[in-house]
Design a protein that fits this description.
The chain is mainly α and 339 residues long. It folds into 3 domains: 52 residues, no CATH class; 88 residues, Orthogonal Bundle (DNA polymerase, domain 1), CATH 1.10.150; 161 residues, Intergrase catalytic core (hpI Integrase, Chain A, Orthogonal Bundle).
Amino acid sequence: MRLPNGFGSVAKLSGRRRRPYIVKKTVGWNEKGHPIILIIGYATTREEGLRLLAAYNHDPWDVNMAKLNLQELFDLWLEKKAPKLGESNRIALCSAYRYCQRFGRLPYRSLRAYQMQECIDHCGRGYSTQAAIKNLWRHLDRFALELDILNRSYSVLLTSEPAPPTTRNRFSDAEIDQLWENCAHPFVDVVLILIYSGWRIGELLNMKTTDVDLHERTMRGGNKTKAGKNRVVPIHSLIFPLVQRRMKEGGEYLVGWQGGRLSTTQFRTQWKAAMGSLKISKTPHECRHTFESLLDSAGANRKCIDMMMGHVSKDTGNRIYNHKTVDELRRNLELVTRN
């Protein structure tokens, strides 16, 4: 069957080849009047080549970019896209790639959903790693679509193990009272600052004294998500004296160690000692659970809670059209009181 003029052609190459059919198209003419041939790809059968040619004519793609294999696309993504992500997210996605490396030499355009799913199903890890692998494929697919390597995304078909119900809980009112009664004990002030501000451990440890404005009574920090980066949280009146005392120490960091930054390991060591002395069994992250629970129980505005927690509001109205001032955040924060 003769193909239409300008449609392209499928021809069989000589010799023994795994994919003997070449798919090509004339895309112009040089100064000598010779045709400029674009090689679209290679196929196992003529029928497969015709399908490839029809697909290209229906929705042309960048043939040179389409040759990128998974490893090359990942390296390019690392250079162009990864730096725009939060540090913890970037680390998780880079770690997830090692479970996908088996397909590293395959052209990215040739990968299908079942191969992506294999990386998730055979990783031998729990829900968090599976979710990271799934998330990585989504990032790579979006990047490939942007580069015209793909004209459809297979990552939307992927599934991973759901997160189990959380076993974390909030500090009880009695435990919070116990913390206040012992706030002069080493490191207990840090526990209370976390409970009444909602910062993640890393966010508080990275907070410098220059990020704290005692006049405006605010703290600025956050580094995990787009919604959480560089956010402002008012200093609750209950912990203001504790923050003041930390500021008077004169170090570079609000919660420092010998004039420098307190490491996560040192933090956990001091946390364990403080909780052990008070016989309270709680993890540092449960301070964030407590912060959100206290605000919710006090009737605080949902958008204000999300902004102080560094979360993205789930409904479109709150996420896009609802803007809160620091004064509004402070009014909602001060709804939390001690009995």
